[in-house]
Design goal:
Length: 114
């Protein structure tokens, strides 16, 4: 299961960060997921609930946020909306996906540091 390995690496990252800052607990996580990642938020949550037992995230609430896909022109930086032709009107350059790809970002992590 794809979601499971993503959760595994996410929790690993949280544990590394917590260790680095000598945190005793992690209270809250906000994770953003690109719209085009193909990730199923429900499955991701289920995988998280399964995996977090016995880790520092055992009692940590996780909030998932979806990052909408966005394209910009690499020439002039113009934003190109969803549904538009993915070529810049001004420069004729092909638009580049600038957000909402397959990234999974740890946006917020609230830790208890003694
Ligand atoms: Zn342009």
């Amino acid at each position: 299961m794809h979601e499971y390995s993503l959760v595994q690496s996410l929790v690993g990252r949280v544990e590394a960060l917590a260790q680095e800052r000598k945190a005793t607990a992690v209270h809250r996580l906000v994770v953003s997921v690109g719209e085009l990642s193909g990730l199923d938020p429900g499955l991701f949550q289920t995988a998280y609930d399964t995996f977090r037992a016995g880790t520092i995230c055992e009692r940590t609430a996780m909030e998932l946020r979806e990052v909408p896909a966005r394209w910009t022109c690499p020439g002039c930086g113009r934003e190109i909306a969803r549904g538009e032709v993915l070529t810049c009107e001004a420069c004729g350059m092909p638009a580049r996906l600038s957000a909402g790809a397959d990234e999974i970002l740890l946006e917020t992590i609230e830790m208890e540091v003694p």
